[in-house]
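Note to self: user wants both folds in one dump. Writing first protein now.
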Amino acid sequence: MRFVLDGAERQALAGDTVLSAILSVAPALRHSEFGTETRAGFCLMGACQDCWVWQEEGPRIRACSTPLTEGMRLLTDAPGDWP
């Protein structure tokens, strides 16, 4: 499956979650909003809120519990207009 991560086209396997797709092509999921550390998910079941990522258009999503869909356009940092 093809998806776009921070403007770069990437590939993943059918059945991947957003988290597993991103971690298969990047060293971390996102940066912490509270420091310089990188994050890679924590609980892996949608409870801890450590795996939020943003869609280029639409709401932010929990990467660990969201299935990847063909053509998803994802951001590892909050878009400029995000509160």
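First done. Writing the second protein, which came from a different request thread.
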Amino acid sequence: MNLGPTEIILILLALVLLFGAKKLPDLARGVGRSLRIFKAETSKLSEDPDEDVKTYTVQQQPQPLQATPVLSPEEQARKLEEEAARLRASAQADKKA
């Protein structure tokens, strides 16, 4: 796609008509900032694409499937209350520390 001088003049004229001469410098600054941010982000992606995969790869041993016991609603509520009490105690200990 080759733009000749006539096409460039028409594009600039359309921009002036749409945005006004006073807003064009702000528009150009905004576009420039956006392009800089975009280039910085894309360069980060292309630096080492395998780096993220390496940091989050976890070696896990396959575990045999185990049947989980079915708990009654009362037992489930009791376990949840115990867990909540443990969490409250650890939160209070963190506050004191």
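Dump finished. Worth passing along: The chain is about 70% helix and 0% strand.
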